[in-house]
Amino acid sequence: MISQVSGTLLSKQLARTIAIRARTTRTYCQISTGGVDQKEAWRDPHSISSSLDVQSSQAIIKRLESRGTDPIFTSLFDTYFPYVIENCDKALEIGAGTGVVCRALAESGFEGTVLGLDQSEQFIQAARDYASHLPNVNFSVVDARNLKTGVKSFGSDFDCLLMHTLISHVEDPLAVLREAREVVEQGADLIIVEGDYTGLSYHSATKPGLSESLSRALVTATFAQPGVVRDLPALLRQSGWSLNRASGKCVSEIGDEFSYWKSFAQAYMPRVSGSGMISQEQVDEWWADQLEHVKQKQFFASCTYYTYFATAV
């Protein structure tokens, strides 16, 4: 068992590791439990999805499709789908993953065309398979850092760009936003949905120190830019976009609700233990504690997501 004192020490040790990570250059990692290079284990797997092995890619594909059917996740669509359906004819999603957002938009009544881009060939192949029944939805393998070249053959008449939980996974958010501005004409819309993962928390009434450490470790192992949503007002202005409005939505599960944050933890816990920072025994102890909280209707996990609307200037 891990005491409150050892949980506090673990939290301090993790904080030092996070600080070191911020000063180091990383080149690769694996999301799978085995074979994770400890020096690289903290790198956001989504930021290097084009170079992941098949096992790691399939794990992420499973996670993306799982959350895509979760009512908690799909409720975020309500913050911008109505606007896109009413005001746009040609939409481009950057960082489309397996195409969950593109499919949902088309199936919600959007009659225009939708193009989804992602740097991972495995993600795009899955996206094409899942959307084969939708004639107005297409996908292409394009890196967000090289949009201008990647979408050249598709034209520059996109009237709406979508970035649904993309910016937190890129190494250089400003560069991606500038690149996005280059592929549209003045007046085009940009809609960004992103979480403030610095506030993501799994609570524990019985093991608060351990739970705090695991929450921070999950965030560090999953997001390249966990707090970038707070920088977006400035980043948008610096990259040729004018912010129109923004709103926030708390995504939480409380009591015995446990689906969205369950699949998130299950997908990325192997990277936490594989890093060597937190042992498998400690991860298992935390997970058992979380499951017990669900059983006792005492579970609590939350994160605030924001939707930004901007216009190309």
From TrEMBL:
It comes from the Eukaryota. InterPro entries: Methyltranfer_dom, SAM-dependent_MTases_sf. Signal peptide: none annotated. Residues 89-196 form the Methyltransferase domain. This is Methyltransferase domain-containing protein. It comes from Cymbomonas tetramitiformis. The lineage of its organism: Eukaryota, Viridiplantae, Chlorophyta, Pyramimonadophyceae, Pyramimonadales.
